[in-house]
């Protein structure tokens, strides 16, 4: 039953990530058309709850999706099972979530709060 739940969760996160990837690519293509540099882009994202929610949702979906995918690969290719397999999944998800959350915070709010 756990395998089915993880399978479904990974598919749901993939469906969530698809429009977020397209949106991210569209914004990046649009942003560089006018010759914007990183400082100008950060100037537009700082303090924006919309960009925080957009990229925060993206990070959560990627962390879940990536951790489940790595769990599957390790199980199929490495034969790892049980608690070790679950630990790899949870640690991977936590690392991805932590790094992604830090990046989202840095792009949207950190400089605005003097950090």
Automatic annotation (TrEMBL):
<keyword id="KW-0408">Iron</keyword>
<keyword id="KW-0812">Transmembrane</keyword>
<feature type="transmembrane region" description="Helical">
    <location>
        <begin position="12"/>
        <end position="32"/>
    </location>
</feature>
<keyword id="KW-0479">Metal-binding</keyword>
<dbReference type="GO" id="GO:0046872">
    <property type="term" value="F:metal ion binding"/>
</dbReference>
<protein>
    <submittedName>
        <fullName>Succinate dehydrogenase, hydrophobic membrane anchor protein</fullName>
    </submittedName>
</protein>
<dbReference type="Pfam" id="PF01127">
    <property type="entry name" value="Sdh_cyt"/>
</dbReference>
<dbReference type="GO" id="GO:0016020">
    <property type="term" value="C:membrane"/>
</dbReference>
<keyword id="KW-0349">Heme</keyword>
<feature type="transmembrane region" description="Helical">
    <location>
        <begin position="52"/>
        <end position="70"/>
    </location>
</feature>
<keyword id="KW-1133">Transmembrane helix</keyword>
<keyword id="KW-0472">Membrane</keyword>
<dbReference type="InterPro" id="IPR000701">
    <property type="entry name" value="SuccDH_FuR_B_TM-su"/>
</dbReference>
<feature type="transmembrane region" description="Helical">
    <location>
        <begin position="82"/>
        <end position="105"/>
    </location>
</feature>
<comment type="function">
    <text>Membrane-anchoring subunit of succinate dehydrogenase (SDH).</text>
</comment>
<dbReference type="InterPro" id="IPR034804">
    <property type="entry name" value="SQR/QFR_C/D"/>
</dbReference>
């Amino acid at each position: 039953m756990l395998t089915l739940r993880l399978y479904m969760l990974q598919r749901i996160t993939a469906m969530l990530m698809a429009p977020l990837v397209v949106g991210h690519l569209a914004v990046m293509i649009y942003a560089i058309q006018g010759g914007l540099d990183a400082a100008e882009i950060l100037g537009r994202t700082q303090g924006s709850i919309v960009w925080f929610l957009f990229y925060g949702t993206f990070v959560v979906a990627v962390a879940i999706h990536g951790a489940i995918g790595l769990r599957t690969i390790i199980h199929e290719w490495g034969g790892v099972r049980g608690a070790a397999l679950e630990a790899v999944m949870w640690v991977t998800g936590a690392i991805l979530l932590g790094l992604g959350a830090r990046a989202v915070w840095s792009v949207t709010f950190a400089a605005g709060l003097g950090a």
